Amino acid sequence: MIEIRDLRVSYGERTVAAVPELDVRAGECVAIVGESGSGKSTTLLAALGLTEGARVAGRVRVCGVDVLAARPKELRRLRGSRAALVMQSPQAALSPTTRLGTLMSRALRLHGARRGSALDRVMAEAVEAVMLDPAVLRRYPHEISGGQAQRFAIALAIALGAGVILADEPTSALDVTVQAEVVGVLRRLRAERDLALLIVSHDLALVSTIADRVLVMRAGEVVESGLAAQVLTTPAHPYTRELLEALP
Ligand code: ADP
User: Comparing C-alpha atoms, which of 197, 198, 201, 233 is closest to residue 217?
Assistant: First the structure.
């Protein structure tokens, strides 16, 4: 679902992310870890053609779309439906005066759905898939918690039929029990719907609970990659060991 080869993202003369190889297949979760500023978000954004102002070289395919060669319209279609981006604090991106149900139905209609009972069913199912009460659709963004907002953002992706979710620090703004809920939802959706997940996180404890494979980045370079079970228990690179030792 995601295939990256020889990716280089530069701002001016500075290369901020160089990723030789990154694949995420359906039903798989890959996590990019590393300290702040190591190039994780840049890699994630480059996968969706969202690194504005950057020079991007290499090959990036997401759901069959050649991201670096695609027209803006094709990229918008990809991002609006098949590949969804889930950000750290989705509440900020939601219009404060629009009920969540209206927001979801608008997004679906923008992608061709018709108003009616079928649409209502899709919305209710998506909301239930992330363990939210469908009553949440009548609420305004400020009436829900951070964890509910994050699960709503995931529900929106599900309703739009996304097969790929790219999540940037999806739980960093949440407290620990709510973090576990959101990760639980992602894990279940991956299993039930064969979703491909690419997650960026500085939280190795969280990553160990969901990722199949891990890519460790430092100062724009991939220093280590492999099976999560292996990298997080017997790291080969001193930097990965450092990250693991820093865990509480
Ligand atoms: P991480 O997600 O690991 O915290 P980022 O990918 O956000 O790291 O950033 C990597 C580096 O790229 C940082 O040094 C950051 O300052 C730089 N960077 C990110 N976006 C831009 C931009 N739009 N213009 C210039 N530099 C940027």
Answer: 201
Distance CA 216, CA 237 (A): 9
Q: What is the pLDDT of residue 171?
A: 83
Question: Of 10, 38, 40, 42, which is best to mutate to test ligand 1, by the most ligand atoms within 8 angstroms of its C-beta?
Answer: 42
By the 8 A CB rule, do 40 and 34 touch? yes
Lining residues, ligand 1, CB within 6 Å:
11, 16, 34, 36-42, 53
Q: Which two tokens stand for residue 184?
A: 């639980």
Name the helix (H) or strand (E) containing 147: helix 146-159
Encoded amino acid at 113, one letter: A
Q: Which of 14, 16, 45 to mutate to test the pocket of ligand 1 (most atoms within 8 A of CB)?
A: 16
Protein residue with least CA distance to atom 27, ligand 1 = 11
d(Cα 217, Cα 117) in Å, to the nearest integer? 46
| Average pLDDT, rounded, for the chain | 92
At residue 248, does pLDDT exceed 80? no
DSSP H helix total and E strand total for the chain: 9, 10
Report the nearest-CA residue for atom 14 of ligand 1. Answer: 37
Distance 38 CA to ligand 1 centre (A): 8
Question: Cβ(26)–Cβ(194) under 8 Å?
Answer: yes
Please, which pLDDT band fits residue 80 given cuts at 50, 70 and 90?
confident
Q: Whose CA is nearest to atom 13 of ligand 1?
A: 37
DSSP assignment, residue 80?
I
C-alpha span between 65 and 42 (Å, rounded): 19
CA 63/CA 190 separation, integer angstroms: 16
